[in-house]
Write a structure and sequence with these properties.
242 residues; GATASE; Rossmann fold; 6 helices; globular; single chain; Glutamine amidotransferase domain-containing protein; Class_I_gatase-like
């Protein structure tokens, strides 16, 4: 499988998903949009994975490439109809590109959290084998406020009603971070925008304790990522490559 990964920050890559894909022998091409790299021809790829980042989807004046990226996502999903995976900003970009509304939350959601599957989520192949809820890792201050017209909301919680969604048949987005790995918290703490949201959400003491709390849950988060990747491959008709 040929995977195109769009990144918006060097320390916010596909994490455990990338490790799984590499172990499976897939071909991965990474484009750093924040460094001015151009999106290659979309027809050359089987899967588009769009990761997180500190910018917001509406900041096109500061980051003009966001407009091009949303156009690429819209074409990928609506015209090419190929598998899409969006995480955090990538989830929000999917919503914005397809006509949904993305905006700031009342306050950032950072740290360990729990999300509940909706009725659509319980039926969707993405969450086959999961229970009614799952523990997740969060780090965001914006959210999909109104999903696109054809979207199915698959997971939710009180802080953010659109925690996971499917648009059409093949496009999935996660607001939470299934891809978290051992160095994630330490890497993201050094990003000024992320540090600000971390301390605002958890306070200085909670910010200092987050790394250890996440480390203790890494086996669970890795198992979740592996199950989601298997389910995504099956939903996309790519199970034979997993």
């Amino acid at each position: 499988m040929r995977i195109l990964v769009l990144q918006h920050l060097d320390v916010e890559g596909p994490g455990s998903f990338g490790e799984i894909w590499d172990a499976q022998g897939h071909e991965r091409t990474t484009v750093e949009l924040d460094e001015g790299e151009a999106i290659p021809p979309l027809e050359d790829f089987d899967l588009l994975a769009v990761m997180g980042g500190p910018m917001d989807v509406w900041e096109e004046d500061l980051h003009p490439w966001l407009k091009t990226e949303k156009q690429a996502i819209r074409r990928w999903v609506n015209e090419l109809g190929r598998p899409y995976l969006g995480v955090c900003l990538g989830h929000q970009l999917l919503g914005a590109a397809l006509g949904g509304e993305v905006g700031l939350m009342a306050g950032p959601e950072v740290g360990l959290a729990r999300v509940a599957l909706t009725e659509d989520g319980l039926r969707d192949p993405l969450f086959q084998g999961f229970g009614a809820s799952l523990d997740v890792f969060q780090w965001h201050g914006a959210a999909v406020l109104t999903p696109p017209a054809d979207a199915a909301v698959l997971a939710s919680n009180a802080a953010c009603p659109v925690q996971a969604m499917r648009c059409g048949r093949h496009a999935y987005g996660f607001q939470f971070h299934p891809e978290v790995v051992g160095q994630t918290v330490e890497d993201w703490r050094r990003v000024p925008t992320y540090w600000e949201s971390l301390t605002k959400a958890l306070g200085s003491e909670g910010a200092d304790e987050l790394g250890a709390a996440v480390t203790a849950r890494l086996p669970t988060f890795r198992a979740t990522a592996e199950a989601l990747e298997r389910n995504l491959a099956a939903a996309w008709g790519l199970a034979e490559t997993s």
